[in-house]
Structure formats: C-alpha cells, structure tokens
Amino acid sequence: MLPSPVSSNPRGFSQHTRLRSFSSSDLKRALSLLRARSRCNNLSILLLAAFGSISFLYNLAFIFSSSPPSSLLAYAPPPSILATIARNSTLENLSHLVVVPGHAIWTGTQPDQVLDESWWTLEEYQRGGGRIAVFVAHIRRGVEIMLKDDTSLLIFSGGQTRLQSTTTEAESYMRLASSLGLFYPEERTHHALSFPRATTETYALDSYQNLLFSLTRFHEITGRYPVQVTVVGYEMKRRRFEELHRVALRFPTTHFEYIGIEPPASDEESESARIGEFENGYSPYKIDLYGCHDFLLAKRRARNPFLRFHSYHASAPELRGLLEWCPDDATLVYDGPLPWDIYE
Predict the structure, then answer these.
(1) d(Cα 271, Cα 276) in Å, to the nearest integer?
(2) On the chain, which terminus has fewer CB atoms closer than 10 Å, C or N?
(3) What pTM value is reported for the model?
C-alpha cells in the first residue's frame, strides 16, 4: 500500500483560494497603474495638440505676413565689421532710391575733360554718336532728381568692368558729378565738398545687378529699403527695366519709375540701337530673368577681370534668397518673401 501523498497545502488553503487572493490585489495595483498611464497619455496628447496649434498659427503668420522671416531679421554682421560703421542719422529716414547705372569709366578730374573721349574707357561701339554727352546727361538728371527730393538717395552703380581701368564705373560717375559742381550748384568751391545723399555701388556687372545691388546699397547706407525707386538711363532700355528687371525683383509698379534719355540720332541710328538692345539686352533677359545662365553669365564674367565680389549677403540678409536665385527654369520668378511686399 502506498503512503498517503504529502499535502501541498499545509496551511489548509485551497489552490482556488490562493489564486483569488493574488488576482484581487494585483488587479487593484494594475488598475491604479493603468489610470496613471492614462493620465500621462492624456497629458502627452494635450501637449502635442498645443504644440501643433502653435506651429499651425506660426505657419499661418509666416504665409500671410509681408515681412521677411525673423531668422533673417535677427541676423547681424560680425562685430568687427559693425565696429567700423557709424551711419549718418540724417539718412535713416530716406525712402527714395535714385539709380544711375554706369556705362563706361571716366578717367579725368577736370570739367574740360568730361566730353573728351580720350578721358573715357570705352567699348568700340560707344565711340562717337554723342554717347558721352548722354552719359553726362544721365548723371545730371540723377543729381537733379535727388536735389529736388530731400527723402532721396542717389546711387551711381557700376563695377570695375574694364581691364584698362583701375577704378569703377560708379566711382568715375561720382567724380564727374563732383568735378562739374552738380551737388552744390550755388557754391564756388562745390567740387571740393562731399555730399551725404549721393554714393556709389561698385560691384554691378550688368543692368539687373545695377538695380538689385543699388537696393542693397541703399540698405547699407540707411538701414532700410526704399519705398520708391527711380532709374535714369537709356530710353531704349526702358522695357528691359520695367518689364524684366522690375518683375524679376517683384518691385511694385506703382513705386517704380524709369526716366529715359537718348542721344540725338537719325532715324536709322535710332532703329539700329533699338535692334541691338532687343537682340543683346531684352531678349537674353526675357529667357534668363536673373542673368545667371549661359550668355548673360558669360558677359558678367567678361566684365569682372579683377575678380571682385560683393558683401551684400551680410549687409542685406533679407535679400539672400533673391541674391542666390538661379533656377533651372530661367524664367521662374523668385517666390520668397521680400521687404517691399508690403507696398503692394
């Protein structure tokens, strides 16, 4: 006869009783833990919803705002650069930019040398035909406009485009205006005096850059962007500036004016000039709005024999995107925020 089996429950509790006791206590703890986790999950959902709402509102504000992104507005040039700059406080409220694009370089210093071709660095096609007189007329008209408007800043624009010259188009135009006493027509010693509301932009290599870089130079001088822009140049280039350059920069039509001055010429000469402008200026920009491909890019390189480059990425950070805009589709207009969007 086999011995009686040893009891596995010496304390007299049944297996059923032990299981029921274990489940009850653990169930309470499990429920408590689940409730705690539920509260955490709810808090997480609320936090995510809050962050999502903030992000959504920020994006809406960005889309409908006419101001540049705050990340650009917060940018400042290095202290070593800022330490060298002391803006003239009388220029901080200027709002009208007057641009005179350069076409050649005057190397003279005296008034009687102004109309003498031997004192100009010219392309062969620029010789004769009264072109020098037109360059001077552009300069005179730009100064006249600026003197009549106390809120304006005159900028002569043009780089060191000629290998034969050690100076820039813009600097030579400024020197010419000063030598003729245009800034102080009532003063006998006018040619020796500086004028605070006239300056130079010395990096532009073509007409598009004349306009864009003058906007950035205005910002360097005043700390703001212009409300009104007036360009003085050849009449035959009016369409290029109004229909292409202005459109490429998205500058409002109602705040932009072009003043054209042509040399005296026969009908045949005028027609020849218009054809040349259409073939070599208007048409290339029509298919390459920003001048950064093929033919127009090659022209820029040819006009930069001294390998100069500008500082406008640092001094005009709101325009960085525009300065770098060169899409594969060369007719695609820049779609980023611009300081003058608020004028429209």
Answers:
(1) 9
(2) N
(3) 0.77
